[in-house]
Amino acid sequence: MLATYGDRRREDVAEGIDSLELAWLIHQLEQHYGTVLDLSDEELARMSTVDGAVAVLAELQAETGAR
Predict the structure, then answer these.
(1) Per residue in 5-58, pLDDT tens?
(2) Which of 3, 38, 57, 59 is the most core-located residue (most Cβ within 10 A)?
(3) What single DSSP character describes residue 15?
(4) pLDDT of residue 1
(5) Which residues does residue 16 pair with via DSSP β-bridges, in sequence order?
């Protein structure tokens, strides 16, 4: 999903996620899955990298039992 922000190739996506990219990513996820992500400040801070975002989203998925 981050690659589609700015029409980049997957390999051009940097590990770091800036605040605008994070806001866009959260919006895209909410639109795609038809839900609202109620993320804490701590979770948002952890999503400053691609690996961090994947970890937070995996934890949310495990908590909710979503697929």
Answers:
(1) 888 898 888 999 999 999 999 999 999 999 999 999 999 999 999 999 999 999
(2) 57
(3) S
(4) 86
(5) 49
The DSSP line for 12-56 is G--SB--HHHHHHHHHHHHHHHT------HHHHHHTTBHHHHHHH
Distance CA 39, CA 60 (A): 9
What's phi and psi for 61, nearest 5 deg? -65, -45
Alpha-carbon gap, residue 6 to 2, rounded angstroms:
8
User: Helix, strand, coil: what percent of the chain each, to 5?
Assistant: 65, 5, 35
Tokens 């691609």 map to which residue? Answer: 50
Cα radius of gyration (the chain): 12
* Residue 12 in tokens: 């051009």
